Amino acid sequence: MNLFAQVSHQALALVCRKADQRFKNQRKRLEQVQRKKLGKILKQLHLTKTQQRIKNYESFAAQLPLTRYSDWKTRIEQMRQGNQGLSRSKLVRYQPTSGSSESIKFIPYYQDFLNELDAAIGPWLSSMYRLHPKLKQGSHYWSISWLPESQRHLLTDANLNDDSVLLDWGKRILSQYTQAVPSDVAFADSADDALFATLCYLVADAHLSMLSVWSPTFALQLLDNMPMWGSDIVQVLTTGSWGKRQHSLAEVKAPKARSRARVLERLLAKPLMDWQALWPDLCLVSCWDTAGAKAWAQQLQTRLPFAGFEGKGLWATEGVVTIPYDGHYPLAYQSHFYEFENLTTGKIVPSWELQLGDEVSPILTTGSGLVRYCMDDHLVVSEFYGSLPCFTFKGRRFGVDLVGEKLDPSSALSTLHSVAQTVQHCKPVSLLAIDTEGQAKPYYLAVFEGAMQNQPCATLIDNHLKQNFHYELARNLGQLAPAQVVCVDDGWQYYKQLAMHSGMIEGNIKPEPLKKIHMNALNSAQVPAAL
What we know:
Blueprint: H1 3-25, H2 30-44, H3 57-63, H4 69-80, E1 91-99, E2 102-110, H5 111-131, E3 139-142, H6 169-176, H7 191-204, E4 208-212, H8 216-224, H9 226-239, H10 258-268, H11 275-278, E5 284-287, H12 294-303, E6 308-311, E7 315-316, E8 319-320, E9 337-342, E10 348-350, E11 359-365, E12 373-374, E13 377-385, E14 388-396, H13 409-420, E15 427-435, E16 443-449, H14 458-465, H15 469-476, E17 484-488, H16 491-501, E18 514-518, H17 519-524
Helix pairs in contact: 1-5, 1-6, 7-9, 8-12, 9-10, 13-14
GO molecular function: acid-amino acid ligase activity
InterPro entries: GH3, GH3_C, GH3_M
GO cellular component, one term: cytoplasm
């Protein structure tokens, strides 16, 4: 690794130090920091005259309702047409995502909001450098925000999807000299070519010290593609040209590293890939490691046992809730204003009133202009760091999320009914998310009631589900196998059988349009397995 990159690491750690010290020094003053944060956010928002008289949290909670994206959708669409924004802060971009009942959402990223994210990024990076000092001696791969292929036209807008704007200008400049893969790979014509280019750059880098992705299935997909693409990667690194992929990757400079091509050739000749020989400096792998990602994260750790491992905090397009920090996962209390719905009592409480063991769902008020925004994640308070609650992610409250696809019951119901109308005498029962627990790629199985000869087409199910932003992306990246269909004589009996094999009591089973089922329950019920 060149000297300039090492100096950049040192400088990056230095510019993160102030936010890190503030995070650590104020960790016992949660209520004070949060009340001040709420006041600062409210001063920047375009509020009604009545709302402008809000002076404290108590009046804020009493006067403003809980919201979801549907409450903001019309206003944001009007903003995109040039109408008044939600905040007085400078609008930087709109970030596309999906979830809730929307197939695609646009979250306004104001400068104030980016500053809030930066207040979480600084302590997080400082903690990583502190726990893994060898990170300063190598380059890093941070997976970028991919867009599904049907949404690639959005990249023509320079105001969209540049991850570097999440950092302030100083960190942005310094991080460019420490990255293993250029962000330009997102401009490839297809997700497949973007993955190929990413792998070429990773192989070309002899000093890769960190692999940071969101879903562990994404990293596993990269590793699994090595045997299939190995000879093509060798060719690219030898010639410095994309060859047959040149048109798709026209916006990306091809890496040239002949010595690394020879290393890869030698490793590919062995029965098993020696990942440590390929990346001897790799000291940290970071990805989701809880709820549905747990089995895949364990599989990734098994593939790369020589590297340290760290789970992600809870980040979403709408904001950050927790960060990894010195071995804990505390609330990112310096970023947004946080409330929580107690899932046992239904009561809404501020962060400083949480108790150990509380099962809650976060509610965010942020510099994006979204106020009392329900995240619909299921968390449990696992410990405290100072006065800061730390959380464990248990899953989504209303939807299903196997690899980050974020499907919800309304999307499932719409898909089932639409596809059922394409054939005669076919009744929709449920869309099952098949958790393969790392044994194979997860997938969705649509269950219908009717004669087998009237079974709907699985491709129709898959295409309809691809209207969901993150489902399409997961399919493009190969993280999900294609959706499947089964048609049975007695849909309710079949559904009950699956639920009971999953451990549910018969009297407690109710029909749901979207439900996660484990592979073992599926096999026990003799439903067709994944292709």
